[in-house]
Fold each of these.
Amino acid sequence: MSVETLIEQTSGATESSPFSPESFDSYVMTTYARFSLALERGAGCRVWDTQGREYLDFVAGIATCTLGHAHPAMVEAVTQQIQTLHHVSNLYYIPVQGQLAQWLVDHSCADRAFFCNSGAEANEGAIKLARKYAHTVLNIKEPVILTAHASFHGRTLATITATGQPKYQKNFDPLMPGFQYVPYNDIEALEAVIAELDSGERRVAAILLEALQGEGGVRPGEVAYFQRIREICDEKGILLILDEVQVGMGRTGKLWGYENLGIEPDIFTSAKGLGGGIPIGAMLCKSFCDVFQAGDHASTFGGNPFACAVALAVCQTIERENLLANAEARGEQLRAGLQALAAKYPHLVTEVRGWGLINGMELKADIELTSPAVVKAAMDEGLLLVPAGPKVLRFVPPLILSSQEVDSALQTLERVFAQVLNSDS
């Protein structure tokens, strides 16, 4: 079944219970600053709200819906697996988990995989693995993991500590010990910290970075910076961990973000796009640092048959439909269009940056216009975007995006900018 057929089948009015934000908020914790929009169905790169209005989705569940909405490959995988076996314990072998692990290993620098449910859990697993490696192999009594300012690694206590943004840490102290922050893309600062900690019981055991900082403003890593870090890690026995939760699974036009940097990590994490919207995460590593033993780490739902079957379908579809090439081509088209808009509205836009289909447009710091305000205006025009901080618009559409949909998004954004100018005049 094609995406076009699915759109036709879901294009009619649907019956549902009346929706009320007030009723919703009376039952659900208000941990999200939600936009006043309730979505109920989707097909391809489009979604519809409870009033039947259509939107072009350049959020994709925040870089998660790799194949868009209601993709036939996912529909088939979900249907078959839920009718067969959806969950058993990891006390037993799960064949489809092994198939997914093999696909990921065959298509990356990793040798082994551990499955969980989210990016935060994958990063927790990487932190635990690095600490055990530090104690048992490097003989470090107080291991330190270096992370970057403006990074984002998750919402658990360990991963918000690893996250170099105080706004996520406020009122959750005491935070976990064993982390220290360095400026992103600043090799001299990183080397200075390592030298400072190079003697004594407290030493650097691992460096945890994003190949491209997503929540930190869509800031790509610099090749020379990461290549020098790889050299330092090799020289000193430090583990290099890359958080690929947002940039992995083809988002950058390459399967993994680290491929843009010409290096290989020792450990990397994946989630979001791995399951195309079905919760699954993975921590992958090279065999030399696989020091986990039975009982060291576990997850009740991690790697269950349902999640793994869908994730495997996503992986195989990326390969079969050549979506890496599409992400690269559509990303180039999108950046060119955004750069043209930046040139047309230089008093609004500072910079356009990104890889593949993760792109950011930074607004001028000295104007009142904020990224949430532009997101709201674009939503009113039928285009869904997501902020990456108060001054950066983030564009992370599904990898199945068409050239016509790129053009449509650019036209909508231009209308929004024109409206902003008219309102200021």
Amino acid sequence: MSAPQDDLDPKSADALPEDLGETIGVPDASPAEQPTEDLAALLAEAQAKIGEYHDQLLRAHAEVENIRRRAQDDVAKARKFGTESFAESLIPVRDSLEAALAQENQTTEDWRQGVESTLRQLNTAFERNQMREIAPQPGDVFDPHRHQAISNVPSPHPQGAVAQSLQKGYLIADRVLRPALVMVSAGQS
């Protein structure tokens, strides 16, 4: 049989040996004996911190909303004015075409020179705006990302190579605007 144990109240520091109460951190005075001013001060301090954190949260939320709104405005402006540079480059081309149509009694050679000049202006506008041609040659490897196959035809080129280019494609800054239309080689028959 075990020896009878004294009823110990774990909340009471008197029930513990003196050195054990200090070891486990039991306060000298019971909570009822602590001054209410200390508790009120702790409560006020905690409420102040909560108010400070709430204010910081509201400010952070407002900042995120401002950043989101500015980003939406930037995207809208980019869409609206993104073609401005390209349009400015095309204005001289249009002017040249209108001037050519306004001229009367032109020779075929004059028309040809005017068209060549206008084509150079258009090419300059394309270059300035990073627009490049996709013009595969017969025998080039077929690239499904840049070429659109219309049909397979027998040809002297290896199977899967471009057999014939039907229409040029175009890139804008490495993004395909229009794929090149091609006929793909089915190999020699």
Amino acid sequence: MKEYRDHYFLKAKRENYPARSVYKLKELDARFRLLKPGLKVLDLGAAPGSWSLGAAEKVGSRGLVLACDIQSTDTVFPPQVIFMQEDVFARSADFEAKLDALGPFDLVISDMAPRTTGTRFTDQARSLELAQEALAVACARLKSGGGFVVKIFMGPDIQELLAPMRRAFVSVKSFKPKSSRAESKETFFVGLGFCGGAAEI
């Protein structure tokens, strides 16, 4: 673990975030102005909860963050965060009912990553699959004009994500936060101005 105890790891500990990943969201927000008071946000793959906490700070008490992950978390969230332990892609009746009740959403965010195998091609393929699933959820649950943020490990099949994103959003941008580890292959794609309808993936 020693190599992970970098500036952002220590900063997260000082500022009471469960993971350093919150600073990636903060950089994305600073660049694209994603989060505003009163917005409704759907956080896919939220555990341990750093992105949900970061989003909650910006949307404030009038906003809402629905956070979901297949794993549980011990993170204590403010009242505007609802955490559900769910497989976000299994589409359970309870989860779909919650989405129906709380949505549509202004912003869907996904910092999901697969369990890495050490085999680059396999990890990239699994990351692409997660990103495509997140895009499908976003297309089903976003308001017109809404935004989408998704993490992916860059690989040769990236157009399989970008092509449907470009059909679903007015603008699609890529961004590599400074707080990403230098050796990481992760990149974030940001869809702005949701056009409505489901992208063909």
